[in-house]
UniProtKB/TrEMBL annotation:
Species: Rhododendron williamsianum
InterPro entries per UniProt: Annexin, Annexin_repeat, Annexin_repeat_CS, Annexin_sf
Protein family per UniProt: Belongs to the annexin family.
Domain remark from Swiss-Prot or TrEMBL: A pair of annexin repeats may form one binding site for calcium and phospholipid.
Name of the protein this chain belongs to: Annexin
GO annotation, cellular component aspect: cytoplasm; plasma membrane
SMART domains: ANX
Taxonomic lineage of the native organism: Eukaryota, Viridiplantae, Streptophyta, Embryophyta, Tracheophyta
Cited Pfam families: Annexin (PF00191)
GO MF: calcium ion binding; calcium-dependent phospholipid binding; phosphatidylserine binding
Family annotation (SUPFAM superfamilies): Annexin (SSF47874)
Keywords: Annexin, Calcium, Calcium/phospholipid-binding, Metal-binding, Repeat
GO biological process: response to cold; response to heat; response to salt stress; response to water deprivation
Amino acid sequence: MATLRVPDVVPPPSEDCERLKEAFKGWGTDEKAIIWKAVILWTYDPPERDARLANEALKSRKKSITQLQIIVEIACANTPHHLMAVRQAYCSLFDCSLEEDIVSNVPLPVRKVLEPWCLDIAQVLLGLVSSYRYHKELVDMNIANVEAAKLHDAIEKKRLDHDDDINSCGSDILVSLLRIVIWCIDSPEKHFAEVIRASIVGFGTDEDSLTRAIIARAEIDMMKIRAEYLNTNKTSLDDAVIGDTSGYYLDFLMTLLGARM
């Protein structure tokens, strides 16, 4: 349920570049920087876009939930084939695997050293990006029953942490990340509706998060996100974006949202 479709006749890159160059002339510095970053992000193929977003998040000095959730989104809110393409693009772009950069850039918490049974954020992220999730409608019940039995056995023998263990041993960031994992796998539209809401609530706008969420889902499930946003916040997504952005940046986002201008 996307809001955009690829046109039957795709214009050549040179034509797109020339139009963008003309469009950027005369804009204010702040608006130009915001819209330039948004448009460039949109022009990348989805795997390259996500690879660049992942690298930017991992290289950021501040490893807050805002940065780390990008890795979760890439790993859990897309198809396994897309994740594999992102990993390949990451290696090509940065001469390093996504897994290696997670290990080297997500610091080991002090509590992990003192309490070895505690969960490690890097371990969680590494498991998410290196796992292959089954993504088809048809389910092999024999395999499903075997895996369910293993899961039950692990819980019974306390080899798998319970909620209380996660809350007591894990950091606030880890607990938040695990919640995002569940949302992204089960109902990605709920997660991205919340990302958009959080990016525009209060004073100022988190343009990076707002842009990422809308661009990432415009060709996937934006209609579901719009419905979820309306249901949860009692206001339309269009009205929320209109109330918090302006100018060409607003026009750009509204186009991706599929709004009638």
